[in-house]
Amino acid sequence: MTFIFEPMDEATAERLRTGGGDCYGNPPEHRISDGAGLPCRRCMCMIGKDEPYLVAAWRPFRRLHAYTETGPVFLHAEICSPAQAGNGALPEFLASPDYILRGYDGDERIVYGTGGVTARDAIPARIGELLARPDVQAVHIRSSRNNCYHCRVVRSGEN
Fold it and tell me: Pfam families of this UniProt entry (predicted)?
């Protein structure tokens, strides 16, 4: 099975970069990076020291329901292109020792029993296990320390 890591979509990134509202209708906050671990959700790379970036509330779901989570994300203030990552190649911004991985069904609801903290090196294997299940349509990767959303992972051809 092959899978891909999906970044923030271009339409959302463009809206935020041009001052459009986040999930709460607020304009994104403009900041300058101190270089201390700010993962851009569009290019899936780290935001470098002295680079301008945005902080915004983002909800990476298509519909609103009880499982829809909203949280803070970082984004390069300037246009950046998403990195291509899949299977064994993790996106650059997954640099911490571990992450929370959690499976979601086709209605974007958590598939209970799929969530857990996974060591960085074990992420590809765990994604493969989860996406092999017929009840799991996507895997979300979140920070194990702050619970921030990083990206969604789907089977190739199913995004």
Answer: DUF1203
Across the chain, which has 159 residues, the per-10-residue mean pLDDT values are 92 97 97 94 96 96 92 96 74 95 97 97 96 97 93 84
Three-state SS at 127: helix
Predicted pLDDT at 159: 55
Tokens of 142: 């979140």
Write the secondary structure of 69-118 as one string of H (helix), E (strand) and C (coil).
Answer: CCEEEEEECCCCCCCCCECCCCCCCCCCCEEEEEEECCCCCECCCCCEEE
| φ and ψ at residue 104, rounded to 5 degrees | -125, 145
Question: 94: which 2 tokens?
Answer: 């997954």
pLDDT value, residue 83: 75
pTM of this prediction?
0.92
Distance CA 45, CA 90 (A): 11
What whole-number distance in Å separates Cα of residue 53 and Cα of residue 30?
A: 6
Q: In what order do the strands lie in the sheet with 29-32?
A: 29-32, 52-58, 71-76
Give the C-alpha separation, 19 to 36, whole Å.
Answer: 24
